[in-house]
Amino acid sequence: MGETTTVVLVAERDSEWQSWMDxxxxxxxxxxxxxxxxxxSASAFAARVRAEMxxxxxxxxxxxxxxxxxDPEVLAARALVVRALTSRMPFAGRLHLDGTPRTRLAMExxxxxxxxxxxxxxxxxxxxxxxxARPMALPLAA
Length: 142
Prior knowledge:
alpha/beta; 142 residues; 4 helices
């Protein structure tokens, strides 16, 4: 019996994370979702993610989906979230960074910086959009 893959999905407020959830849940992995609460600041959300990650042993894959905001507080919070997620990938892993059309460029820049920093760690960092949702098959007529 193989080990279960652990995946963490971190969703900022106003992010488009549903497609990621659908795709990750279809893989059979153990998926943990951490979503920013409506009144939660970016820094408080990052602190909560960091605290939650202290309870995880190993994370095989993680996704950070950015919301609409892209101010200095949010950028600093994203860096803390990335650090918390990758700290649970001790030997290898994959970190996906995604954002809204408005914040995609910032997520791509963050992915490049983090990828350079983690080059020798075995953690792959990619900036990509969620896979397109597959339409559900219509039931056949009786």
